[in-house]
Amino acid sequence: MSRFSKSLLVLALCGVSAGAFAVDKYSGVGRQATPAEVKAWDIDVRPDFKGLPKGSGNVERGNELFEEKCASCHGSFGESNEVFTPLAGGTTKDDIKTGRVKGLSSGELPQRTTFTKVATISTVFDYIQRAMPWTAPKSLKPDEVYAILAYLLNLQEIVPADFTLSDKNIGEVQKLLPNRNGMTTDHGMWPGASAAKGGIGNGGKPDVKNVACMKNCKTEVQIGSTLPEYARTAHGELADQNREFGAVRGTRTLGPEAAKKAADASTLDLATKSGCMACHGIKSKIVGPGYNEVVARYKDQTDAEDRLFAKIKAGGQGAWGSIPMPPNAHVKDEDIKTLVKWIMSGSK
Amino acid sequence: MGDIVKNPGRLRPAPENFLSEEQVKAVAAGRRDFLRKSFMAAGVAMAAPLAARASEGDTNILNLPEWSTTLGKPVATNPYGMPSKFESQLLRRESPGLARVGGASVSFAPLQGLFGIITPSGLHFERHHQGWQDVDPSKHRLMVNGSDDSLLKKPKVYTMDELMRLPSVSRIHFIECGANTGLEWGNVAVPTVQYTHGMISCSEFTGVPLKLLLEDCGVDYKKARYVLAEGADGSSMTRTIPMEMVESGEVFVAYGQNGEMLRPENGYPLRLVVPGVQGVSWVKWLRRIEVGDKPYATKDEAVHYIDLLPNGLHRQYSSIQECKSVITTPSGGQTLLDKGFYNVSGLAWSGRGRIKQVDVSFDGGINWQTARIEGPVQNKALTRFNINWVWDGSPAILQSRAIDETGYVQPTYGQLRKVRGTKSIYHNNAIQSWKVVESGEVSNVQVL
Q: Is residue A108 within 8 angstroms of chain B, CB to CB?
């Protein structure tokens, strides 16, 4: 071995030991993840479909699953605006051709739906797989995710009713997304490398430029908007949202009705804290029936309050459809009684 | 000015012959109990002066209060201390109609009553995507892996025990939701600073730099230019973060908040801290970090948290919270008690670094004065400013304008809307205006 190659060997050894030191510097801390562990948690799907599980599902199966697991929040056609903003609607055949949703700039769109915005089909797959259904996230198998996504794509008139979506053809569907060309990263709000340096954005250059003028900066003050009267009172009694001492007081915004409203609000708070309002609306069905529907059904029954008390406490299924009402052992008996009286008196 | 002028701290003259000769003698003899009884019998409000004549001075001074004349409570009466019973008004609150499901909603921090720069942990704003969880720290794990094997030598799992053995940092940073002030893009919509700006909080966070963990796993910085952070909750929230920020050492995985562990609503037992970047990237209940060579276009960077422009394009991966400020006292929904001196106080912050200067206007932006800044001014942290004001009782419009260390000056509504329109929801950092009218009532207005 020549001297030259010896020194190379020494260098190489140093390199190895330095690398090993970097990895093991914090001795005893952390351990290697097993392949099964990584597989269990590494569920993300990227726009280039890295991470996409194999599988397939058709529109028909998706329709069944959607009705069973999704429609109570999203409506049968993904159109509901009751609980979340709508999933489907708002795009045209022409948008599918251009990849830009025209309604976003024309002002014709009353409300943005998921498919008017999303530019990457992987996003929708990833999200359904990790977070849906609302009350049982991560319970869908890959084939079920494909089926539900196929149904949504059919609702959006992107694929036909006999379509089967799979890991093989999802790339083709990507090319039909109505807003696939609708994103820009040409802005200054990405904190990493700029697009010019292989990253995203313009490298942090702001899009507005104000100057710090100090004296006689303008001749008049133009008021663009003032607080509407309804907004002044929509947030409850502002006097009660500030200290009763100090430099200022909260403005008294509600009239003589304030005390009553505040008391009612506290029952609503109780209902919210007890978890009721996640599934029931006062005037609308969410997952369970609206309280107006409960009142309509039970108002003429003399034992209504006792029956509702028992139902809230122990839970039940069947009276309002297949979605079960969970038991509510965490809510105190007296609070359940208060809630029942409140519901039966119109939740006012 | 109505009710608010009935200020318990003020001297008010007692009615003539309020006390009989006999009662005066009783007072002199120290028999306050007698007086109290007779006053109650007479139905006199408790707020009225009890014993001494107002002409002698403040009865709150002259008549020693109960807390000065009785034994107080022992230590550890409240093993975990709570605010005074007189502080029940300042709570985090929802804005009615903003969200229809509590699990995917927001509660706003009551900025109108807070001091300094640290948000009490119990008043920290909340934003959950699928409800909050109280995660068992003994069962919580943090996994670090690569989108493929060539980006990271050794995918690892850390327990809380292990994370808390590692070298730690404690730093004060603000966290602001990208949608803070989002209700106000088109017009004034909400009455108080709690609802206009309350999706911001500032805490001292303690944890381990993410850089340290990635290097412990043998990251290849050349290939791995993006980081995906993922939560352990039902939503398993994900966001893409640039590796440049991680390499700078600023990003850390935090377990501590204001000297104790994180609150469950804030991600107990582990969350990501991404200074200067909108709150959605500060993934709570952090379970996994993946390094990758491409951004991820997750739901909260491809369907939500994208900023609609007038031309119909959405800005994607908008992350930095630009320089912004707001006057918190006096602010919308408050009423000034009287003419005279006030310490006008507010908060300023910038996702690009330190606050350099804050100017305040009392005439709707025609003239400005530089406010006092409370130091030390910290990087990507809330910064408190104060300025003296003598209110002469005439109408006024109060504004604050922050400048950060990059020289960026907080913009007006007119300037922002010219570029971004009124429908982008996110990243509204416009100058806030509060109008004061003769009655002393302060309300939310927008000056263009």
A: no
Query: pLDDT tens digit string along A245-282?
Result: 999 999 998 865 665 666 566 778 778 777 788 778 88
**Of A150, A174, A198, which residue constitutes the final position of a domain?**
A174
Q: In a mutagenesis test of the A interface, which of B88, B164, B316, B422 is the best target, namely the one with the most A β-carbons within 10 Å?
A: B316
The predicted pLDDT at position A16 comes to 43
Q: Which residue of A has its CA nearest to B337?
A: A248
Q: Which of chain A's residues have a Cβ under 8 Å away from the Cβ of B366? A: 216-219, 221
Q: What is the CATH number of the domain that holds A278?
A: 1.10.760.10
B116 in contact with A, Cβ within 8 Å = no
Within a domain: A334:
yes
SS3 B253: strand
B432/B446 Cα distance (integer angstroms) = 7
Cα angle: A25, vertex A26, A31; to 5 degrees: 110
pLDDT, mean of residues B276-290: 98
State how beta strands B334-336 and B169-176 pair. unpaired
Average pLDDT rounded to a whole number, residues B16-28 = 48
Yes or no, beta carbons of B96 and A105 under 8 Å apart:
no
Q: Answer whether residue A139 is part of any domain.
A: yes
Q: Is B75 on the interface with A (CB under 8 A)?
A: no
Helix A304-314 to helix A333-344 angle (10° resolution) is 130
Q: A42 CA to chain B: closest CA distance, Å?
A: 8
Which chain B residue lies closest to A134 (C-alpha atoms)?
B130
A219 located within any domain? no
Give the predicted TM-score (pTM) of the model.
0.83
Q: What is the mean pLDDT of chain B?
A: 91
- What is residue A70's predicted lDDT score, i.e. its pLDDT? 95
Q: In chain A, what residues touch B409 (CB-CB under 8 Å)?
A: 209-212
CB < 8 Å to B307, chain A: 187
Q: Is residue A76 part of a domain?
A: yes
- How close, in Å, is residue A280 to chain B by CA atoms? 10
Nearest-CA distance from A223 to chain B in Å?
Answer: 5
Residue A82 vs residue B192, higher pLDDT: B192
CA B258 to chain A, closest CA, distance in angstroms equals 24
The answer to whether residue B150 neighbours chain A at the CB level (below 8 Å) is no
Query: What three-state secondary structure class fits B433?
Result: strand
- Cross-chain residue pair B299–A232, CB shorter than 8 Å: no
Q: Contact A224/B187, CB-based, under 8 Å?
A: yes
DSSP A312: H
Residues with Cβ within 8 Å of residue A263, at least 6 apart in sequence? none
* Residue-range definition of the domain harbouring residue A157: 56-174
Amino acid at B335: T
**Complex-level ipTM:** 0.87
Question: B132 or A264: which carries more pLDDT confidence?
Answer: B132
Give chain A's domain count: 2
Out of A141, A174, A207, pick the residue that ends a domain.
Answer: A174
Q: B415-440: string of b/e by CB count within 10 Å (b at 16+)? A: bbbeebbeebbbbbbbbbbbbbeeeb
Q: Tell me: the pLDDT tens digits for A215-248? A: 999 999 999 999 998 888 899 999 999 999 999 9
pLDDT more than 90, % of chain B = 86
At B246 the three-state DSSP class reads helix
